[in-house]
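Objective 1b. Sequence-to-structure analysis of Phosphoglycerate mutase.
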Amino acid sequence: MPTIGFVRHGITEWNVLRKAQGLSDIPLNETGIQQARAIARRLAAEENWDIIISSDLQRAAKTAEMIAAQLGLEDVIKDERLRELSGGEIEGTTEEDRQARWGEKWFDLALGMETGEAGAQRTIALMEEIVERYHGKKVLLVTHGGIIGNTFKQLFPERVKTTFIDNTSISIIEKVEKGWSCLLYNCSKHLQEEKT
């Protein structure tokens, strides 16, 4: 059975400003590039990964490319199913913007946002393909916070109560007979180690 790792991309300016990114193709900022270097070094030191599959949005793709270079892997496979949840009309806005425009209950309005459940379902479908295609391999998925958080919340509802995921954190699961087993969740110790 394969082992699957999930890495959230490095931080962007919109993350810093707390703007909803969704499908907006925002690049890593300088801190995000440093974070991507840190997770790449950690993965090279701790794990052997066979395959990297990434969202095609540049913040994830750049993070994946930096990891692949450190691991000595030639190819990063891009898959649109690993894109962040679509934010619809809220993309590019802060919470304050949303409340000013649509009121305090903006999240109850039909603003074209993809649900967390829908994002989790497309990710789980990809995971099942990985099980069939890459039996016995270690596959790293470089994606987005909303995708990772909602997927883990759906797979491990007793353990995961919030969908927040740290930038460049790693979470690792493995396929078992009756579903999935979580080996590591939202670990970003490499960022603390960089500060010391």
